[in-house]
Amino acid sequence: MDVKQAGTSLDSLVSSFNTRIAELQELVIARNMYPASSITDLSAVDSTLKAMELQVQQIKERLREETEAIPKAKKLIESSLRQQKKLQSMSAYVPSHLPERVTTINQNTSRCVLPEIPKQDLAIGSLKIEEEPAPLPKEKKGRASPPLWYITADELDSLSSYMKGRLTLDKVNAAINDMATYAEANAQLIIAPRKKLTENNMDKALELREIATTETVKGKHFFLETDIKGPALKLDNTGKAILTVLRHLGRVSESRVGRHRVFVLLNPQ
After folding, report:
1. Contact between residue 244 and residue 237 where contact means Cβ atoms under 8 Å apart
2. Reading across the β-sheet that carries 222-224, which strands appear in turn?
3. Is the preceding omega at residue 231 within 30 degrees of 0, hence cis?
4. CA 100, 105, 108, 109 torsion: positive or negative?
5. How far, CA to CA in Å, does 247 sit from each of 58, 93, 152, 159?
6. Given the DSSP bridges, would you call strands 252-257 and 222-224 parallel, antiparallel or unpaired?
7. pTM of this prediction?
8. CA atoms within 13 A on the CB side of 49
9. What mean pLDDT, rounded, does the chain reach?
10. Can you point out the beta strands (E) in 197-251?
């Protein structure tokens, strides 16, 4: 290496040292500009970082719990679906409403509960209402409630389209509720004490007692065509179609007693 090349290398080395020294001076100046605030900022960053680490850990634990709960949730969903199918199957046979079991003898008197029927026989030829309640025939240990024998969707579907018409399951079963209410009111009139009756009710009670002694009605719950006043069963085209369907399905039988058209509620066979 000659003298000229050695001088060039030395100049380059000196220049490099000078540049590095200048950079270090700038770094020292920058560090000493805000010495207090830099420490505070670093502490805040450290606190924030620790809080984030804690949140991440909590999220991981929550995810683990949710993952473990997934099999239990699946079993619960399966049980709920099975229960839903059962309830849907049951709802197809339940009417939209049920009748009241206690009816009034008249609008001006308070409601009365049916008394226990005595075991004495009902005299066929007597039309006089006595002071003691008169029993329905063939009842020994209290009078049973009128039968509520609802129809099913399969029974309704089995009818011909001409007979079924526009009838629905709810309409027909609601009519069955009304018929049971009519029969319950008539049964109360038959067994009601005289002091519970008004003049109008007494006349009807005499008629009902006479009808109750006929062979086709004796010992059964019944109502008259004149009792049909709704709310679900009325003497219109729909009501007549419902009565036809119920006679066909064996829910009621029809007979004529004197001037009255009598419908007897039948029990399931």
Report:
1. no
2. 222-224, 260-265, 252-257
3. yes
4. negative
5. 70, 19, 15, 12
6. unpaired
7. 0.50
8. 6
9. 78
10. 222-224
Of 253, 181, 184, whose CA–CA distance to 217 is shortest? Answer: 253
Residue 128 phi, psi (nearest 5) = -85, 130
Instruction: Give the tokens for residue 55.
Output: 């949140």
Helix axes 169-191, 237-248, angle to 10 degrees: 80
Sign of the alpha-carbon torsion through 183, 187, 192, 197: positive
Residue 145, token pair as written in the block: 């409630």
Which helix (H) or strand (E) segment holds residue 55: the answer is helix 35-91
Q: Which amino acid is at 264?
A: V
Helix (H, G, I), strand (E, B) or coil at 252: strand
Question: Which tokens is 24 given?
Answer: 């270090």
Query: Collapsing DSSP states into helix, strand and coil, what is residue 18?
Result: helix
Nearest to 170 by CA among 150, 186, 190: 150
Position 120 pLDDT exceeds 90: no
Q: Is the dihedral of CA 73, 75, 76, 77 positive or negative?
A: positive
Residue 116 amino acid letter:
E
pLDDT tens per residue, range 179-228: 999 999 999 999 988 888 888 788 898 999 999 999 999 989 999 999 99
Per-position DSSP letters for 167-195, written without gaps between them: --HHHHHHHHHHHHHHHHHHHHHHH--GG
Angle of helix 169-191 relative to helix 199-212, nearest 10 degrees?
Answer: 100
What is the CA angle 198-203-204, rounded to 5? 100
48, amino acid identity = T
Q: Are 175 and 230 in contact (CB under 8 A)?
A: no
- Rounded Cα–Cα distance for residues 205 and 209 (Å): 6
pLDDT digits (tens, 9 = 90+) for 235-248: 999 999 999 999 99
Amino acid identity, position 260: H
